[in-house]
Amino acid sequence: MFAAVAVPAVLVGAGVFLAPHWAGGDGAPASAADRPAPSARTPSKAAAKPSPDPKPSRSPRPSRSPKPSPSPARVHVPASGPGTFTVARAGAPGGKYAYRVEVEDGSGVEPDEAAARIAAVLAAPRGWAHGGERSFRRVSSGPAGLVVRIATPATTDRICGEGGMNTRGEVNCRINEKVMVNLKRWQTGSPEFDGPLDEYRALIINHEVGHWLGRGHETCPGKGRPAPAMMQQIYGLKGCVANAWPYAENGTYLGGPAVP
Questions:
Q1: Which residues lie closer than 8 Å to 15 by C-beta, 6 or more apart?
Q2: What is the per-residue DSSP string for 119-171?
Q3: Quick one: which of 189, 25, 153 has its CA closest to 79?
Q4: Which one, of 106, 175, 103, lies nearest residue 140 by Cα?
Q5: Is CB count within 10 Å lower at the N or C end of the chain?
Q6: Are 176 and 37 in contact (CB under 8 A)?
Q7: Across all residues in the chain, what is the average pLDDT?
Q8: How confident is the model at residue 26 (pLDDT cuts 50, 70, 90)?
């Protein structure tokens, strides 16, 4: 989950499978470990064995705006992939938090296009940037305290499972510095989220990066109010209105009661 854009019971088909509160759109329990990880090279497996060095970024080429998201009904989502990743090229210099975007080979997602969407979410005033409170810079090599990976359901399950998370082929997770974005959610959204696909992608990033920043799960603050970005919205909105962003346009934090 919106994994919530640090969400979810796990969806199976059109139904909802009730799972522990930590196994949803992020798959990760909220704990003291949910804080920015120290900068370090990305391991392939969570605390298991080092990953191969990222593939060299492609030769620089003119930047391009992300294409409109394809209709989810027309997108083929492979259930599994090779477990190897292509690294998106670096973004503009500057920014406090270095992060890297990696896309599993054969997923059908173009790394630089996905990275452009993620960069827009991280820089949005209603996101965790919050009018300059935080800043992010995308790197293609070297240390990165945050790594966003878009991976097939099987690869997501494998990597999340190494950290004790059960994502059941459906949802996302956050383990240490790695945010694992399930390709199924990235490409098809969630039936619980009433909004454009790009908004749901923002919810995935905002939710999982929120966990990385130390935020725990929250729930609906009241009927008709915006669902917190840190709510596991894929499990149901509980009377709230679907929302991808941690902050309102006036800068107010859109939170809710903490989930134990």
A1: none
A2: HHHHH-TTTTTGGGTS-EEE-SSS--SEEEEEE-HHHHHHHHHHTT---TTT-
A3: 153
A4: 103
A5: C
A6: yes
A7: 80
A8: low
Instruction: Give CA angle at 172 (171, 175), nearest 5°.
Output: 145
* Virtual torsion, Cα 168, 27, 201, 35, nearest 10 deg: -160
Q: Rounded to whole angstroms, how far apart are CA atoms 53 and 45? A: 13
The domain that holds 202 is classified in CATH as 3.40.390
Number of separate domains in the chain: 1
| Residue 211 included in any domain | yes
Residue 198 clears pLDDT 80, i.e. is over it? yes
Determine the pLDDT at residue 75: 79
Higher pLDDT, residue 56 or 108: 108
Write out the two tokens for 214: 């130390």
Question: Residue 51 has what pLDDT?
Answer: 38
Residue 124 within a domain:
yes
Is residue 201 in a domain? yes
Q: Report the SS3 class of residue 208.
A: helix
Domain containing 120 equals 1-12+23-28+81-215
Mean pLDDT of 170-195: 94
pLDDT at 104 > cutoff 50? yes
